[in-house]
Structure formats: structure tokens, C-alpha cells
Model the fold of this input.
Amino acid sequence: MYSFKNDYAEGAHQSILNKLIQTNEVQQAGYGEDDYTKQAKALIKNEIDNPDADIFFVSGGTQANLLVISSILRTHQAIISPQTGHIFANETGAIEATGHKVIGVPTTNGKLTATDIETTVSQYGLRPHVVEPKMVYISNSTELGTIYTKAELEAISSICKQLGLYLFIDGARLGHALTASDNTLTLKDIAALTDVFYIGATKNGGLLGEAIIFNNKELATYFDYNLKQRGALLAKGRLLGIQFQCLFENNLYFDLAKHANTMAAKLTEAFKAKGYSFLVESTTNQIFPILPLTLIKELNEHYDFFTWKAIDDQHAAIRLITSWATSENIVDEFIDKIK
Done:
């Protein structure tokens, strides 16, 4: 049975495994002071065109979100997030456990707008009786596979500056967003428009790992203390550095994401050819076709995926996620079973 439940069911790209083996007995400094981590940071700084950025490698997305938010905000400050946002819906109250309220905003496609942000801030003006919205959290791509355009992100960045809010992008699937067929953003744009964001490797060819990038250096002043205090500073930091070094050499990070998107697009075309519609239009590696329950049951005999949302008593939307390792043969076999 092949799983379309997530994009991290496989291990890691072979080049990463090879590099880990080749360098295994080479002695290096600990805690991210090794040569591989330094080289990885240099590659990323070049990619974002910001030599002054502060970069930290951590093991996973929830950890990255928790560390960034808890390090930046004061205890009375809150985060504005889409209700579909990972910090609001899928992290077991990790952010709230650090003492920060997550203000969930309803959206139709997983994306916040500048108007959403302005409206939400206006609803929290009764100082000191309510929390102070101080950060905006968005994901690119979103939990629904949608992406932000450059114009949308510019509008969000502008309203955040106007209202004195920090802008934080969850980039667990950033590679998939930036290689989508209709994408208008670059890593340089994202670095220029945000205070902090991260680049995810866990979902795009790495064994694990996220690269947190502070474009607003003032916010990183005490981040290393928080990293250590919360148990996120790896003694063998080279394990993360080597992975990002491999991924950002020779465009591998983007090539892997583009492959996942291409496989998802092929599935999308097949469903549309059969006359099926979608919960949302996605050009990344997450798609949400609406199918008869009978077909879902048949497909589940051979493939693992989430039944996402009931539409009526006969239909539901499923979520299919393709990965950097999803082969065209697997996709073709799946398409053959669509009736």
C-alpha cells in the first residue's frame, strides 16, 4: 500500500545519506559550529541575498514555530493565524503552552489577507483587558496547498509594518510554494518582506530539519538562549548542517519540490478529466479532490490518504500529498484506478 498521507514517509534523498556517510568520521566542532553548518548558512544567505541574516537550524516545524514565537513575544502578546494554520489546529496547544494566545481567523482558502489582519487588530483594542496582537503567522504553502502571490504578501507585509506587527512565515512546504506553476515569489522576496521565516527540509528530502531565518536581526538577539533552554540546540549540529548544505547545492531543494508538484499536477489533471471537482484549487503537492464515498473506499484498498471533509452523504474531499520521492509509476497506477 502506497501512502499519500504526507510528504515525509520516506527517509532522505540519497545525496544526503551519502554525505553523512562520507563525513561520518571527520571530527568537527559541536552545536552548529561545524564547517558544514557554516557552509549551509552561506548558501542560504546567498539564496536570499541577505548576508546579514541570522540563521538557526532546528529539527522540526512545531519546534521552529514554538521557538520563534516564544522568543519574540512578551507574555501578554498574541499571534494572528488562519484557523487552518498549523499553530492553531495541529500543534497540541504548543504555542498556548508558552503563554501566548493564538487568534484564529476564518478563511476560505487557508490564506490571510491584509483586511483580515486589520479587522482582527481592531477587535483587540481594549487595553489592558485583552491580549495585544503582535505577530502575524502564515504558511506558504498553506495547509490547503494554496500559495501567496507577491502582491498578497506585499499587502500583508505593509499592513504589518503599519500596525507594528511582526510577520512570520511557516515554510515547512516553502519549496513547494516557490516551485508552483503560478508562483510569483522568490526567496529574496520573502526575506525582504518578512521579519522571520523558515525553510523546511523535513517535507522536502531531508531526514529532518528546518532553517529559521531572521531578517529582522533585533529579534534574534536572545534566540540562541531560547534555543538552548528549550532543548533544541543539537550537540551534533552537523546532522542538520550537512542536510541543508546538500539541499542548497546545485538547486536540489527546488528540484525535489518541483517534482512533488509535478506529480500532484498529474493527479489533478486525471481527476479533472474524469469530471471531479476540488475543495480548493491547489498548484502545490497537496490536492483535495471531491470523490464519491464508494470510490474512496476502493482507492483505500491500495492507497493510504486522509478523508478530509464530508461534502454530503455520498461524497467527501480527500487529501493526497505527493513527495520528492513519489514516482511517476505510482501516480500512473493510481490514475488507472480512478473511475
